[in-house]
Amino acid sequence: MMNRRQFIQGTLAAGFALGATPAKAPAATGGGEVKLYWHPGHYYRTYRDVWAQAEKDLGVKISVEQFQWPDMRTKLLAGFTAGAVPDLMEGGLWTLEFAKNGYLEPLDAYIAKDGKAMGYPEDWISQAPEHNFYGGKIYGIQLHLTCNTLFYNVKLLEKAGVAKPPTTWQEFLAAAQAVKEKTGAWGYVPEYQVSQAPTAFLWQNDVQWWDPKTRELTINSPEGVEALQFQADLVRKYKVAPEPQPSVGYEGPANLFIAEKVAMITTGPWNIAPIRKGAPNLVWSIAPPLKGKVQATYYAGVNVSISKDSKNKDAAWEIIKRITTVEVEGAATKEAAMLMPRKSWVSRPEVAADPIVKKYAEIMSTVRRKPIFPFDMLMAEVYEKMFQEAYDNVMFGKMDAKEALDRYVRAGNLRLKQNI
C-alpha cells in the first residue's frame, strides 16, 4: 500500500508529460455503427462531446445503450450467447470472467501500437491496470479510479457537539450516537450493495478475504465477524442507523444526506455531483476512511473493454484512446467530480480547483483492492451474490455475523472448489 507521500510524489512527478497531447484524428475506420454499453451515471456531456467528434473523424455512427450494472451484466451474458454484443462496454468486476470465457478482445496489439503515445501504462496509477489482466494479456483500460470514504454534514455534527469528523470506529459510533440523541437525524445510513461500504469496513479491520495458499475463503475470521457485526450493531444495537434499503443503485443514502436526515454516509465520488445538485447550500465535506485495526478502503472504478465479436474493433479502440486522455479526464472531473486513474490527472487544474476532489486525490493513498478470487471468474457469484446474502442476513436481523459468515464460507468454498 502506498503512503500519502509516495502517492503524491508519483502523481506530481508525472505532471503533464504523459498523455498530455490529444491523439490526432485517424483516418476513417470503414464506417458502420459502433455500439456502446454505458452506465447512466457516467453519461457525461464530456463523453458525449468526444463521441460526437469521433463520429465525424472516424466516419461511424456511435449508439449508446445505458444500463445499471446488474442489468448490463444480464444483457451482456445474453448477448454473448446470441452473438448480439456491443463493440465497447464499461465494466470492471466481470472483466476477467469474460476474458476467460473468450468474450473480450485482447488489447495488447493496440497497446503495442499506441501505448507509448497514450502514456499507458506508465501514466496509470499502478493499481489501475492490475485487475484488467488475464492469462498474461490485457482486456480493459481503466476509465475511472475511485474509492469509498466518509461524507459528513458539517452543521449536523456541530449541532451534536462533534468538533471534527471521526477517524476511528469508536469515534464514528460516538459521533453517530451524539447526532441521533441531540438532533434526531440518523447518525449514519448504510449502503445496501456489498461492493460499497460493507467491504470498506472489512478492509478497515484488516480482514483477509481468502487464503491464496489454501485457496479457501477465510472471511469468517474473528476480524471478519467483528467488522460485519459492527455494521449490524449500528442498526440493531445502537439504533443510530436504519436498515439498508435494497437497491440496484447507490442513491439511497445520498438522498437522505441531501435531505439532511443523516449526518454521515460512506460513499464515493459518484455521489458528489448529485449531492451538489440536490442540495447546493448544504455545508458538507469528506474525511479519510475510518480506522478499525487499520485505516483503509478499496479501489473501485470502471474500465472499458472491446467485445471479441465486435465488427468495429479499430473504431472502438480509437474511442478508448480519446476518452482516456488526461484532458478528457480533467473535463469529466470538472463536470461530474469523478476521480481518474492517470497520475498526471492529479496535477490538473480541475483537481486543484475542486476542494472535495482535491481531498479525494489525497485520500486515494489509503486504498486497497477489492477481494480477488481464483481467476476472478466467480467475482459476481461468490462476492456480489453469495456475500450479499450473508450481509442481508446480518443487517436484517436474521442471523448474527458468525453464523452468516460461516455459512457463506462453507458455500463459497464449495463453489470455488468446483471451479478450480
Itemize the secondary structure elements and their pairings.
Elements: H1 4-14, E1 33-38, H2 45-58, E2 61-66, H3 69-82, E3 88-91, H4 95-100, H5 108-118, H6 127-130, E4 133-134, E5 137-138, E6 141-142, E7 146-147, E8 149-153, H7 154-159, H8 169-183, E9 186-188, H9 197-204, E10 210-211, E11 216-217, H10 222-236, H11 251-258, E12 262-267, H12 272-278, E13 284-287, E14 297-300, E15 303-306, H13 313-323, H14 326-336, H15 349-353, H16 355-363, E16 367-368, H17 379-395, H18 401-419
Parallel strand pairs: 1-2, 1-3, 9-12, 14-16
Antiparallel strand pairs: 3-15, 4-5, 6-15, 7-14, 8-12, 8-13, 10-11
Helix pairs in contact: 2-13, 2-14, 9-10, 11-12, 17-18
**Distance between termini?**
28 Å
Shape: globular
> What is the count of β-strands?
16
Beta-strand content: 5-15%
Instruction: Quickly give the structural class.
Output: alpha/beta
Round the mean pLDDT to the nearest integer and report it: 88
Low-confidence stretches: 1-28
Task: Give the biggest beta sheet.
Answer: 5 strands, mixed
Using the CA coordinates, give the radius of gyration: 22 Å
What level of helicity do the residues show?
40-55%
Number of H/I helices: 18
Spatial strand order of the main sheet: 2-1-3-15-6
